Metallo-beta-lactamase domain-containing protein (Daucus carota subsp. sativus), 456 residues
Amino acid sequence: METTPLSFISHSNDLNNPIRIADLEDFENEYEDDSMKKLDDIITQEEEDSFAGDFYRCGTDWSCLNSSSTSANKRLKQCNLFESWKLPLKTNVEASTSIVPDKKTIQAQKPQQQRACPFYKKLPGTPFTVDAFRYGQVKGCSAYFLSHFHADHYGGLSKAWSHGPIYCTPITGRLIKMCLYVNPLLIHTLDLDVEYVIEGIKVTMLEANHCPGAALIHFNLPSGQCYLHTGDFRASKLMQTYPLLLNQRVNVLYLDTTYCNPKYRFPLKEKVLDFIVKVTKNMLKKQPKTLIIVGAYSIGKESVYLAISKALTVKIHANSSRRRILQSFGWPEISGNLCTNGNDTPLHVLPMSSLKFEILEKYLKSYSDRYTSVLAFRPTGWTFSESTGSELDSIKPISKGFVTIYGVPYSEHSSFTELREFVQFLGPEKIIPTVNVGNAATRNKMQSCFQEWSKK
Ligand SMILES: [Zn+2]
């Protein structure tokens, strides 16, 4: 009964590092961009300044979108970029093989070394970095931006953080204070859609359509250069109406390329929510004593359980740590629908890592006086499969005993087509991918996409 829609589970489990931050229990890192961390590791082998200098001076095929503005002889071929990284050429030869040394090798070689901040987290011509907290003090950085509260972005932040002021949205600011005990004096919150001037540079946070508090960060330099850092985002039509994006050319786009591959064709979030509600109602017709469980990261996927809550007019049960976080958003729609006692509602939220048969069977037993079966949803873009495409009805759950688990393609990152549309709308001069950049073959594919998009 194993089916392709859930084949992602083995992948996810490999990366499944439950974290204990402060008093949070059993929350899971959103390690969808693990390869980004691998690139961080590579760059420790290189002097950060010379690498960044080479990169920005020369440009590369994969970062240059606007071919007309760049003469061909100024470009470096991809292999030259690797040479500038001082990566072993032997591994480059095989395009399909990762050039990244395995983690054990890296750890054995440099067990104690502080990793250097990779170039794509620094904004040239500014004293700013984005999502760069795990590198200690970054040379020349006097303002550290945080795009959103997911562990692979805030990694390195703690109550011991002392390297400089942190700029983020108010929701993210509350979360790093509440969950990570970051010194409140270092947290500077920026409201969405308001222009601030920081170190002489105009900065505006824009809704990123990712998780609560997530922002696209727009930088307008005195030189006239304009950067957009997407953090993690799901591109939407609404973004094409943002005045800042409509009215000014973006010179450099730092792009969340989590699903920058044509095979990722998952449907709109709204369609997936309708599907989830339909499946839930059908199940309850057949088996009224069903406990509905939604898997979620520390934050994100709220719309999934809110949709079920509305459709069934039931409350949402989550443990005390998650309730605290959800209440911190200040959204009455969520705060007013939470309940503390799991016996009071058939809709429960659990960490994504708990969506395993053994765990859910035990969970069901603890509610055996009320429920006889479990219907669980695992919402993530990784559930996509070629055979499923956007035909939601063809998604097959996996079942064992009284537990049924659906993997649903509910993604808080852009699909391939959404990415393309967003990039073509923006028409940036240069794109710097921030995810899946640790593999040569993937980088080359992304480069081809960017070039293709620039022609249309
Ligand atoms: Zn994220």
Observations:
- The longest strand covers residues 201-207.
- The radius of gyration is 22 Å.
